[in-house]
Structure formats: structure tokens, C-alpha cells
Design goal:
Layout lengths: L4 E4 L8 E7 L3 H8 E2 L7 E8 L2 E10 L10 E7 L2 H13 L3 E2 L4 H8 L5 H12 L3 H11 L2 H25 L6 H23 L2 H9 L1 E6 L6 H9 L17 E7 L2 E7 L9 H16 L2 E7 L6 H9 L5 E6 L12 E2 L8 H11 L14 H20 L5 H19 L5 H9 L6
Parallel strand pairs: 1-7, 8-10, 8-11, 11-12, 12-13
Antiparallel strand pairs: 1-2, 2-6, 3-4, 4-5, 5-6, 9-10
Helix pairs in contact: 4-5, 6-7, 6-14, 7-13, 13-14
Length: 436
């Protein structure tokens, strides 16, 4: 696998402990020269790390290959937190024969040694970077190998299918080709249904990964900035009685019921001669187009006017929620919507719930959800090949069907990393931090 590698695995800074890890054929011998204490397999041992003027009392644990994260011999040192101690321990390991690990190299070695599938490694990245409970759950499901298992099970079924088709081709005198093709069709139809069901989670996966994008829209001075502040629970946007105060889009994120909701407070849409305000209004229109949900805010204490009607038309066809602000005052509108008071906070909780209810979050997020574009593309490629094979089975020979089945097998292998190209693999592991 190459030279023994070492790195600090915890963030640099003041803290209780820092962890320095090492992996490779020489990990145990290097550690034995520097650590004065026992190094028993899978046991945490107290001792002293000694190198030149460094004498650090610490804990060390040895993981004997192949029962380690990387599949190689590994040693981890738990030393006192802070910048200097961990750095000096790392320098000692490098002086003693190890080299500095690259980003994600420990995880990459785990993948190359068959300890980790490529999709599980990507799940690990998602867990580390998760900013919502839903994203964390999706990351854990991916890291636990559920998608990898689906891909491997699909490949096994396709391998069995190929074996039947190859036998029929090798022994044409037995006239088994028609039977083999018919058997393949039944299996292909089942695999198509399962793959389509998994791809149906992509919409939810994108909302989990990126959060629900919500544009707050309304005519000037209708209370958009006040509503944003109420939704956030803090004063983020400037609120005045002057029209056109918000001249650009303001973006803020909250976590609600395990999901991230990204609010965009837009500039009031109206005719304006002010160049800066005009740019803000154009950005508002773009925010409306790209949003998952549009909150059209209306001042319920005033009758609808021409500008309200224009906004109703502008947001038609979008996933829209009508929000009737100033419900603490006498209503002068006769339209249905969520009644809120941005001033008092009344109705704001109901509005947050309505936002999540309005988007497609019907998939059980405790199960497998596709949140990664690479996995989506691989599944689409596999699905196309499965459908082509199923179609070919109606009129083509067994060798044509077998060719298309092999294409599907290769596409599923991209998920686990078995058939993915080296450049993609390197790019994925480069996303990890040092020491992971």
C-alpha cells in the first residue's frame, strides 16, 4: 500500500485531548520506539511518548491488521490538547519514518483494502458535514452501507442472469435461449421497479442536502423583513416604514423539524427609477424562479391593490403559500391563507409547518434516500441499461441482452467504487480533511 502515514485527526486548537494516528506496515515498530508502555492489540494503554525534549504522558491504542479502520496496522495516540503537543508528536512520527498523510488518505486506504465501499465513504463525508438532523440520518444510512448493499445485490442478480444467458449461448443445441431470455425479463422487471423506487427519493434527497429554499415575496413595506426576523427569532433584516429599504436579497437558514429552511427576503417588487433598487428587484424575480416555496406576503389590513394582483400572477404556477400579515388588525381581504402577525409572532410556527408540508418530503427519511448526484447518475445509467435489456429481450438474441446486462452491472459498480475510474475516486477522498 505504500509508506506508513501519520496525521493529526482532531481540529487544531485548545481542548482536552488531541488524537494523532498512524497507519501502515511500520506503524507498530515506529510507535514501539517512541512510546514507553505496552502496545496491546485493541487495548488503550497509558505510557509516555518520548522524543528528544518531548516527554508526554498519554494513551495509545494499537489496531492489528486487518482488524483496523484502514485494514493495515494502526496506532493512535491520545495526547493533551492544544497546538504544540500534537504537532510535536506528529513531527516525531515523521522523523521516525512515517510520512504526512494526504487529505482522506486513511479512508482511501480503507476503501482500497476492502474495508469501506465508495458510497459508505461518501456517507462519512455527509455525516461530518451534516447541518440538519435529516442530513445526518441520510448520511448515517449511506455510511452504514445500505446503498452499497443495494448495488452489490443488484450486481449479484445480474451476474446470475449473465450466467444463464451465457450457458444458453454456449449450448445452442439444447434450445434454452428462449427460456433464459424469459427468465431474464422477469428479473429485469423486478430490478427496474426497485431502481425506480430508489430514484424516486432524489427529490427529497436534494431538499435534505440543500435545505428547502423559500422566497419571501411582496410589495414594498408589506412586512417581509419583519416576517423574516420573526421566522429567524432574531433581528436580521432592517425594518422601517420607508418603501424600498430592502434593496438586495437577504439569505438566512433555520433548522426546523430536522430540516434546514433557507429563507430569502427579497426586495419589494415595484417600478423604480433607482438603479440599485432595480437590480434588487431583478434579483427578487430570480429568487422567485429558483425557490422551492414562495411565501407571498399580503397586508391583510389593507384591501388588495394592483401590485398585489401583479404578484399573484407573477407567482402563479409556483409552489406558493399566501401569507396574510397583520392578523392582529381588522382584515380587509377575502382570500384564504396563513394568518400571521410578524410583529407578535402569531401564526409563525404554523407557517413553518406549512412550508415543510408543502414540499415533497413524503419519503421515510429513516430509510435510504439518494442525496448524492454521483449516485443519482449511476442509478439512472443502470436503469437505462436495465430498460434497454428488458426491451431487447422481446426481440433480440441472448448475446444482445447479455451486453446490456453487463452495462447495468458496470453502472451499479460505480456506486461501490468497483468500476468507478481512479480520478473520481481520488476526487471523492480529497474532500476529507487531514487525518480522516
Amino acid at each position: 500500500m505504500g509508506k506508513t502515514i501519520a496525521s493529526i485527526s482532531t481540529p487544531m486548537g485548545v481542548g482536552a485531548i488531541a488524537i494523532v494516528r498512524m497507519s501502515g506496515d511500520e506503524a507498530l515498530s515506529i510507535a514501539s520506539r517512541l512510546f514507553h508502555g505496552k502496545l496491546e492489540d485493541r487495548k488503550l494503554n497509558l505510557g509516555q511518548f518520548v522524543f528528544e525534549d518531548l516527554k508526554e504522558q498519554c494513551l495509545a491504542v494499537y489496531f492489528k491488521a486487518p482488524r483496523s479502520f484502514t485494514g493495515e496496522d494502526m496506532v493512535e495516540f491520545q495526547v493533551h490538547g492544544g497546538v504544540i503537543v500534537a504537532r510535536k508528536v506528529l513531527e516525531a512520527l515523521l522523523e521516525s519514518g512515517a510520512r504526512l498523510a494526504e487529505n482522506g488518505e486513511f479512508s482511501k486506504r480503507a476503501f482500497l483494502n476492502g474495508k469501506l465501499s465508495l458510497s459508505s465513504a461518501e456517507g462519512m463525508i455527509d455525516v461530518i458535514n451534516a447541518s440538519s438532523e435529516a442530513e445526518l440520518k441520510a448520511g448515517y444510512n449511506l455510511m452504514s452501507g445500505e446503498l452499497s448493499k443495494f448495488a452489490k445485490d443488484s450486481q449479484t442478480a445480474l451476474t446470475d442472469m449473465l450466467a444463464e444467458l451465457e450457458v444458453a449461448l454456449d449450448y445452442p443445441e439444447h434450445d434454452d435461449e428462449a427460456m433464459a431470455i424469459e427468465s431474464a425479463r422477469k428479473k429485469l422487471e423486478d430490478m427496474i421497479a426497485k431502481t425506480e423506487a430508489l430514484l424516486a427519493t432524489v427529490g427529497t434527497g436534494k431538499l435534505i442536502k440543500s435545505g428547502v429554499s423559500v422566497a419571501i415575496v411582496g410589495k414594498p413595506n408589506v412586512g417581509k423583513s419583519s416576517l423574516l426576523n420573526a421566522l429567524l427569532g432574531e433581528d436580521r433584516a432592517i425594518v422601517t416604514s420607508v418603501e424600498g429599504t430592502t434593496r438586495d436579497t437577504i439569505s438566512e437558514t433555520i433548522s426546523y423539524s430536522g430540516y434546514n429552511i433557507n429563507f430569502v427576503d427579497t426586495a419589494g417588487v415595484r417600478e423604480s427609477d433607482d438603479e440599485v433598487e432595480k437590480i434588487g428587484i431583478e434579483r427578487s424575480k430570480k429568487a422567485i424562479e429558483s425557490a422551492d416555496v414562495v411565501l407571498l406576503l399580503i397586508d391583510s389590513s389593507r384591501e388588495l391593490d394592483e401590485r398585489d394582483q401583479e404578484l399573484m400572477k407573477l407567482t402563479e404556477g409556483k409552489r406558493r403559500i399566501l401569507v396574510l400579515n397583520k392578523c392582529d388588525l381588522k382584515s380587509k381581504v377575502e382570500i384564504e391563507g396563513i394568518k400571521v402577525s410578524a410583529k407578535s409572532g402569531e401564526g409563525v410556527e404554523e407557517l413553518k409547518k406549512k412550508i415543510l408540508d408543502s414540499v415533497d418530503l413524503k419519503v421515510d427519511t429513516s430509510g435510504l434516500v439518494i442525496t448524492n448526484m454521483r449516485h443519482e447518475e449511476a442509478l439512472k445509467e443502470a436503469l437505462d441499461a436495465l430498460k434497454e435489456a428488458d426491451s431487447a429481450a422481446e426481440s433480440e438474441s441472448a448475446d444482445i441482452v447479455a451486453f446490456l446486462v453487463k452495462r447495468a452491472w458496470t453502472a451499479f459498480g460505480k456506486i461501490t467504487g468497483e468500476t468507478e475510474n481512479e480520478a473520481i475516486i481520488d476526487k471523492i477522498f480529497s474532500k476529507f480533511c487531514l487525518g480522516k
